[in-house]
Amino acid sequence: LLWCPASPSPGSSCWGRVVARALRPCGHRTIPSRVVGGDDAKLGSWPWQGSLRLWGNHVCGASLLSRRWVLTAAHCFEKSLDPYEWTVQFGELTSMPSIWNLQAYYSRYQVQNIFLNPNFKGVAPYDIALLRLDSSVTYTNLIQPICIVPSTLEFENRTDCWVTGWGDIKEEEGLPSPYTLQEVQVSIINTTMCNHLFHESDFRYSIWGDMVCAGEAEGGKDACFGDSGGPLVCDLEGLWYQIGIVSWGVGCGRPNQPGVYTNVSQHFNWIRRLITCPQLPKLLIALAKL
């Protein structure tokens, strides 16, 4: 954690901007600024964006927290929990780089450990996973980590956050070649309003626990299938923070049914403990057997 000269209170600017950075440096990008309703991203715009790959094929989005740690959604591992089968690719604008693109393969990292949140039961809440990579990521202008915070109070009701991914651009319409990363600006929707929107629709889901909503009430801007695990990020005074992880939704971009994300801040302490001591889960299991 970074030092702050005052004693910050949760929700204060100092708390969110300085003390709350679990890892440094983070949240920088060198490029200023189709997910549903989105546009093609520019190379380097979202340098923490990763492609989580099963046997080399894109499955989910992910985000870089540090040289050895990656954040994604727990439900991405329905098919396999064997780390050997998974890699994460960084620094590429396409999810399907050419076989002649050697740099893409140099920037593809083997997963060493997969840590699902212990409370995850196959569906949200607790739809969050941490990955420890087998080797350290090399930072470049195109590959940089994202910041996380223990409180998202400063980001409530923001209308200028972004979600990125290589998922479908419409319901049942996949991302066309050359499979360029998509970006779309969305609004953070508070839990009360989000529950109201869902209860006004045909799908009466309840938003609770660590869920946070983002999108537009009128629809048209949303994450979609294939974007799971990717980051929902907001800018604060020139630094970028990950607020959510793409988790689930009803269709894509439908009115009154915004996308639902895992609130990263509610798992800040779990993330910090794992990064500090990745052997902790095995130690706890061993202690329980004594």
Molecular structure report:
With 290 residues, this protein is α+β, with helices and mostly antiparallel strands. It has helices at 13-19, 102-106, 191-200, 268-276, 280-288; strands at residues 39-40, 49-54, 57-64, 69-72, 86-90, 108-116, 129-133, 161-165, 182-189, 211-215, 231-236, 239-248, 259-263. It has a six-stranded antiparallel β-barrel. The longest helix has 10 residues, at 191-200. Pfam families: Trypsin. InterPro entries: Peptidase_S1_PA, Peptidase_S1_PA_chymotrypsin, Peptidase_S1A, Trypsin_dom, TRYPSIN_HIS, TRYPSIN_SER. This is Serine protease 21. Residues 35-276 form the Peptidase S1 domain. GO terms for molecular function: serine-type endopeptidase activity.
Summarize the structure.
With 290 residues, the chain is of the alpha+beta class. It is built from five helices and 13 strands.
Radius of gyration: 18 Å
First-to-last CA distance? 34 Å
> How many helices in DSSP terms?
5
Question: How confident overall, as mean pLDDT?
Answer: 84
Question: Which percent range describes the beta-strand content?
Answer: 25-35%
